[in-house]
Specification:
The chain has 365 residues and is an alpha/beta fold. The chain folds into three domains: 2-77, no CATH class; 85-236, Flavodoxin domain (Rossmann fold); 247-364, Cyclophilin, CATH 2.40.100. It is built from ten helices and 15 strands. The strands form two sheets. It has an eight-stranded antiparallel barrel. Strands 1, 2, 3, 4, 5 and 6 form a six-stranded parallel sheet that branches. The longest helix has 17 residues, at 2-18. It is elongated, with a radius of gyration of 27 Å. The model is unreliable at 1-10 and 12-29 (pLDDT under 50).
Length: 365
């Protein structure tokens, strides 16, 4: 297998050189499934028509595009938030982690574990010892224990569940470190804690006074023995923000990716549903000096009306043909989408005078 990959990579380099491509080191992290497919097609010897060689696909910076770059690219895809909720927690003995696990299981939230750069040992939390690390930290409100690694970003998350044990009646100081290094001013934050007897109210007051928070909800203290039913009852009693997403269509053509806003039609909704399954590559033929048109692999619902099409309009013709306009024409169409942030002159130059291949994919923001 290794020998096969080596031969495949060598062949890929030869293709690049033959096509006059220059391998460009990776400089972005917002890769799409379309990027994965384009790189895979290239490695299999069938490069996409819109592949230029300027794409930042050399993720391991070894001067070639190879199978390792595919693996790294797929890993980058997994960094995109899968939920609008994130469970952030610090757990030294595992009690808080048990609660966090149940919240994740119930809500489908993503996870971030706060880990100390200098891990806490058993001796560090021996509370009967006045000189143990935890006691010294809790007695000094200015202490900020270093976190091993902060999350790259909280963008995309609307709700942050914040979990911690109670140490001497308050949140551990490492929680303060986290709070002071993220922006929660537009987030809903829901605290939860574990303790033998102390409540959560003091830590809630501390958190509220420490940093601006968009909506700090009333938290909940759990015993280490809390059941899944106890946690679920608490979750069920909340009104949680629903993630608001704006679905857009990405259109790749001649090495450039355009963005289109779907129309409010049945056809546009049906197209988006198709693209949720997989991207669509379509050959568009030049027609009339004002549009590119191609036959779809399936029919979409029609709601035709007389439309004066403008550059940037994406319309459905006769139920099974998609047209992208770079000029103007009046006819009976159904609206699908409209390209944004591109002028008529830019669009005409990008599409050129002949046939063109485009790839459509879904982008939920």
């Amino acid at each position: 297998m290794k020998r096969f990959l080596a031969i495949l990579c060598a062949a890929a380099v030869c293709i690049l050189l033959a096509l006059g491509f220059r391998v460009r080191a990776a400089g972005k992290s917002d890769y799409s499934k379309q990027d994965v497919q384009k790189l895979l097609r290239f490695l299999l010897g069938d490069p996409a028509d819109d592949l230029t060689g300027e794409e930042p696909y050399d993720l391991n910076t070894d001067g070639t595009w190879n199978a390792t770059d595919i693996t790294l690219m797929k890993q980058e895809l997994h960094t995109v938030p899968q939920s609008n909720m994130l469970v952030v927690y610090f757990s030294r003995t595992g009690n808080t982690e048990k609660i966090a696990e149940e919240i994740i299981r119930s809500t489908g939230a993503d996870r971030f574990v706060i880990e100390a750069a200098q891990p806490y040992s058993d001796a560090d939390i021996r509370y009967q010892d006045d000189t143990c690390r935890a006691n010294l930290e809790q007695n000094d409100k200015s202490v900020r224990p270093e976190i091993a690694q902060m999350p790259a970003s909280l963008d995309g998350y609307d709700v942050i569940w914040l979990g911690y044990p109670i140490w001497w009646g308050e949140e551990p100081r490492i929680i303060d470190t986290f709070l002071e290094n993220v922006d929660l001013s537009e987030k809903t934050v829901i605290p939860f804690c574990t303790s033998g007897s102390s409540g959560i109210s003091t830590s809630e007051r501390n958190i509220r006074a420490l940093v601006p928070i968009g909506d700090l909800r009333a938290g909940k203290r759990f015993a280490a023995s809390a059941s899944a039913a106890d946690i679920q009852t608490w979750i069920d009693g909340m009104e949680l923000p629903v993630k608001k997403t704006e679905t857009k269509i990405q259109i790749s053509v001649n090495g450039q990716t355009l963005t289109a806003v779907p129309a409010d039609t049945e056809a546009a909704a049906a197209l988006a549903e198709k693209l949720r399954t997989e991207p669509l590559t379509l050959k568009l033929n030049e027609y009339g000096g004002f549009e590119k048109v191609g036959k779809l692999p399936w029919a979409l619902p029609r709601s035709d009306s007389q439309i004066s099409a403008q550059a940037g309009d994406i319309l459905l013709y006769q139920g099974n043909q998609m047209t992208i306009f770079y000029g103007e024409n009046a006819w009976s169409y159904t609206r699908l989408a409209r390209l944004e942030n591109i002028t008529q002159a830019e669009l005409a130059a990008l599409f050129g005078s002949g046939d063109v291949t485009v790839t459509l994919s879904l982008d939920a923001e």
